[in-house]
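<instruction>
Derive structure tokens from the sequence
<data>
Labelled lines for chain and fold:
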Amino acid sequence: MQLTKRRWSKVYESSEEELLEFLRSRGLTARRVELAEFETADEQTAPGDIALWCAEGSMTIRTQSGPVSQQPGDSVQLPAGTEFTLVGGISGCVYYTSAD
């Protein structure tokens, strides 16, 4: 599996409530995480295949392959073993993470 970016919403201004309904409808359990504006999270390694779901704000996912930006309605699937760092955007970010 390689890093893949997708849209979970067809609406540009999607909301956190819409994401939660989307995840519930697919039987996915996800953990909520917040990043402050321009906050850089510690580097992580994906323990298994994971997905990052952007609910509010924006963020950048930095990997060895390069940066990937996320806006509300975007999701990124990261394969197991991917090293990555998350950086909150200008107004921070709320995102959810789930195992694929």
